[in-house]
Amino acid sequence: MQRYSFIAFAGLMLVLPLLPVPDFWITQSNYIGLYAIVALGLVLLTGVSGLTSFGQAAFVGIGAYAAAYMATKMDVSPWIALFVGLALAVVAALIVGAVTLRMSGHYLPLATIAWGLALYYTMGNMEWLGKYDGLLGVPTLKLFGWDLGSGRRLHGLIWIIALLAALATTNLLDSRTGRAIRSLKSGSTMAEAMGISTFRYKLTVFVIAAALAAVSGWLFAHFQRTVNPTPFSLAKGIEYLFMAVLGGVGHVWGAFLGSAVVRIVEDQLQVLLPKLIGTSGNFEVIVFGIVLVVVLKYAPDGLWTFVTRWLPAPRRVRDWAGAERLPRRDKPAAGELMLEVDAVRKEFGGLVAVNDVSFRISSGDIVGLIGPNGAGKSTTFNLITGVLGLTRGQVRFRGQRIDGMASRHIARLGMSRTFQHVKMIPEMTVLENVALGGYLRTGSGVARAMLRLDRAEERRLFAEAEAQLARIGMADKMHELAGNLALGPQRLMEIARALCTDPALLLLDEPAAGLRHKEKQALAAVLRQLKGEGMSILLVEHDMDFVMGLTDRIVVMEFGTRLIEGTPAEVQASPVVRAAYLGTEH
Length: 586
Ligand code: ADP
Ligand code: MG
Hints:
With about 575 residues, the protein is an alpha/beta fold. It has helices at about 5-15, 25-50, 55-75, 80-100, 105-125, 150-175, 175-180, 190-195, 200-225, 235-250, 250-275, 285-300, 305-310, 375-385, 405-415, 430-435, 445-450, 455-470, 485-500, 515-530, 545-550, 570-575, 575-585; strands at about 140-145, 145, 335-350, 350-360, 365-370, 390-395, 400, 415, 505-510, 535-540, 555-560, 560-565. It has a 6-stranded mixed sheet, with helices on both faces. It has a 4-stranded antiparallel sheet with strand order 4-3-6-7, with helices on one face. Strand 6 and strand 7 (about 400) form a beta hairpin. Helix 2 (about 25-50) crosses helix 10. It is elongated and about 90 Å long. The mean pLDDT is about 90. The structure holds adenosine-5'-diphosphate (ADP) and magnesium ion. Adenosine-5'-diphosphate binds next to strand 4 and helix 14.
């Protein structure tokens, strides 16, 4: 949503209680705000990060019970209760997250179901929490001497919190941390190669979503003036997820739209369905089920996408012109030994994909790694960069053992790479994708992003990203969505992203595949220029003209084994290579 749309919407919601609208509207609006705060967490967690949680209602329950218990039994300030509720939710999320977020596939949703059920029955069976009757008589909220007792007065607080949460989430998504979070859905390999700890960010979004849910629970307790386990059951957890999915699980404002639609339709159905069917019962559930199937089929990105068509498209203002570039690492000395690959081996079951391969790269060298398909070139890349563990052997980078290190730690030492099969975030712009490469060169965290205190650093990062794009001739495409590019430009974008990490050693897996002749020549020129600046490059490539014209030395592999290593002339003259490799080409 653009700034003006936001201001208009926020203004409307804040003056709503002052207008002569029926109390019923205000009540509905209160519920929508309360739900939206929870659904906002699910947009981050499920929509943006791809982590499905059915258990958010339990975190709402923690916030609500903390508020109700402390207000009725301990007579402490509601602000302390809010703090305690938040702290409990955060600790619970850290524990549950630490255990479950390493799970893959369907295990995480199942774990959230288990945890949602467990907390529901705990709340229902605790004597001191009033069992299934809950805690009654929660006092009204008092703020600076103001009694926020009536729905109209509480409306202001609920919506101020909901709107601030939406703003903070929007800011977060448009930041260094946000890009890391947005990369979670596309698998971890690329993000980790850029130095991002994917587990850490999964845990971060899990905690943020839990905290938002707990705040909603705190408001809920003071709004309803009573708490019992029912609103925090698994069924409600599923409903929250439904709101997020219906509204548009990848969009901040989808959380609001989804909450509004669910609340209003639910209410209407409770009146309408008994009239139509003649009996009462939980038929809304069936209707919602049908609606969900229809929405997922015809609007998989949710209802919000229909609204965005009517809103002006947001445009990133290019405000980083003239910003100072990011600091660079010290260049390696000329001829410094950069990479030592020493009898490296990788077995996949019975298949020896890399068979005791050794070679070295010194600073300023461009080394080619060639061989027929399946020779083990990409696997060798993965062993060097820490994507795969070695079966045997050693890898040293600038004298330091790196075999067994996580790829994000290796990235920090100054090694960067591209992938044979392009790995990117298709729904981010080219510029944002390249900016991911600058992750380790910047430092703003969640709080700075939410408060927009990271702008100066962001400008420097984007200046850097644009410069790297310009270097490979792609500055004109920087605002396009990466997923809309052809394969050739996508590969170039990956190179720009790798350069944005300020590497000392660059590993390029088939960089020229899919490029046109002119583009290949331009790429070769850039790589030569990088070499001139002291960069070392390891290159897998099938285009022989490209490899022979560019490299200082070539390592030839076949069936996982190193055939020979030599200068391009030596390799071209070698009968072994001709038989094994070039023979198949010519
Ligand atoms: P290249 O990049 O030289 O074409 P790769 O390194 O991709 O070759 O593959 C080398 C061999 O290892 C191939 O036979 C491939 O099928 C196998 N291989 C690669 N990755 C895996 C994996 N994750 N599990 C099992 N086998 C693999
Ligand atoms: Mg390969």
